[in-house]
Amino acid sequence: MTTAAARDVVHALADAGLTVATGESLTAGLVAARLADVPGASAVLHGGVVAYQNAVKTGLLGVPEDLLARVGAVDADVARRMALGARAALGA
Prior knowledge:
Layout: H1 3-16, E1 20-24, H2 30-36, E2 45-50, H3 54-59, H4 65-71, H5 76-90
Parallel strand pairs: 1-2
């Protein structure tokens, strides 16, 4: 995510009265870091979880073990479950 894109996301979220939380794996927190670099991000960014190991994906973010076993960690359904888990865990 570029600096300009991060700024646009933070401003769009603020304008819409929305918040965000991240659940990241391969990016190792890069998305949350880019958003946090934008002045005013604290108004919309609740936080992020870097779930690099599958045990964190299942234990903290609620990704089903059978899903990870079936499709692996790099999968759209896993990413969707991670996002839902981050939202639930961080209240966004």
